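Blinded run. Sample ID left blank on purpose so nobody reads anything into the name before looking at the predicted structure. Input follows.
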Amino acid sequence: MPRKLPDDNQYHSLDEIERLEQEEINAKKGSKFNLFSNLNKEDADGVSKDEEQIWENPNLPNFFKLLRRKLNQLLSVNILMIFGNFPLFFALFAMSGYLSIHSTSPYFSVFAPLQGVMHFDSSPATAALSNIFGIQSNITVLSTADYVLLALAALTLFTFGPVCVGTTYILRNMFRGEGIFLWHDFWYAIRRNIRQGLIYGIIDLLIIFLLAYDIFFFHLNFGNSTVLDMMFFASLVLAFLYFFMRMYIYLMMVTFDLSILKLLKNALLFTVLGVKRNIMALLGTLAVLAINYFLLALYFPLGVIMPFVIVFSLCSMIGVYAAYPKIKEIMIDPYYKSDRVGETE
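Blinded prediction complete.
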């Protein structure tokens, strides 16, 4: 909503306030060296006509034009997503098994009774059965070091939300064709939304975990009863619904001053109002994941590397491209059309 700036009698829109704050911070930076700013210096010089057309008409062909123009920045954003959530590397190292306890265990449950029988009646028959049912399988048991690493990985609860806030802010500015100072903009957005980012990041991860757990649990028990089957489909519906809501929540967080409850309420409304763009975003995300899965099957090392290169940032960009035009249409444009905002433009 429009606000007054300190020592200013005029009303300014949120975008105008954000632009003025950005100009003030960039002026203070002066000529300090910033790796990401230098890498993206050409994007801070102005907006091309091509980008203006994308901003005014965010259709499917224009998405690929934007992707071609901003591919380098997407690679950088993906790096921020990966290393911003660095505690996950502790979990990956724990799951690798390098510090785990490795042993063997009988593969068949009749191994123990068979061994007892062989102590009292060792014969060619029991020896043959032992060769069949005495097969050992490798097992891995978590060590103390693994538990320490998993505890450190829990720090992701405190990094996930702020990283989503920072990267969403950058992706939104990419879509709007604004000048981008990657590293600076990332921390600027986090500082402005640190409290909400931390709180909602924890809520976000818990919801994702519960939905994933429910889907796997009810899938494993699918067919056992009608109730469990219904719960499986209900979990899928909730997962899709929350996928759509997430596209709007972080975008509204970095654009407006709203409480978490209002963010959730508005996001729920946008899942209905923007159903067409939401479905296209879902199809685009599924296409990216399917391509990555195909690469895993075709050449495993390439499929493993792709999430560390572009998959996460590309999926997020698809969500921003689909969601922000609807937010602009319903929550931003009406204020620009009002008389009070028109006087300050």
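Unblinding after everyone has recorded impressions. The radius of gyration is 26 Å.
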